[in-house]
Amino acid sequence: MAKKALIFYGGWAGHEPEKTSARFARVLRGHGYDVDLEQTLDVFTDADRTAQYDLIVPMYTQSEITKEQEKGLLDAVKAGAGLAGWHGGMGDAFRNATEYQFACGGQWVAHPGNIIDYTVNITNHDDPITAGLSDFQMHSEQYFLHVDPSNEVLVTTTFTGEHAPWIAGTVMPVVWKRKYGEGKVFYCSLGHVDADFEVPEAQTLTERGLIWATR
Description:
The chain is α/β, with parallel strands linked by helices. The chain has six helices and eleven strands.
């Protein structure tokens, strides 16, 4: 049977939620997945429906989620659905939903200098998500996050301090994986806009992470 994935998208338009969601819907369909795209959070109030999904992908920057919707989403992950996403669509969704942030393993707080050139470092070369990849350059937002120390970090970036001197030398996770209940969780901080995924490593890391997180 085909794996079933749900990509739900919306929120702040600057992250191109429709375009990036369509990109990874195509990717997942290319791997044989059955993919649903939703622009509403009401799907999470239908427990029977959410229980069918093997992978749940948030692309919903900022915004609000009700307690009932949050519970429906997180119950599905606790029961074994994967939770996987990128940038602010996952890592800056639902700022008031602390249990959601607990599941994700981190929350965006800043991108000093906004769009800048920075280096992304592969720190674990043995994981299937990073296998064969080398350090690479991005011209985009360099995310500073508050992160869970229990995350298994695969990829990092180091802040120079040029735009915020007090964080000079700070090594920040870019890609991590973790568990939440029975569910596998993957996050990648790259992907501010769809064009960022034209960097092959950014696309590959995210694609492999979605596949890895799937039940």
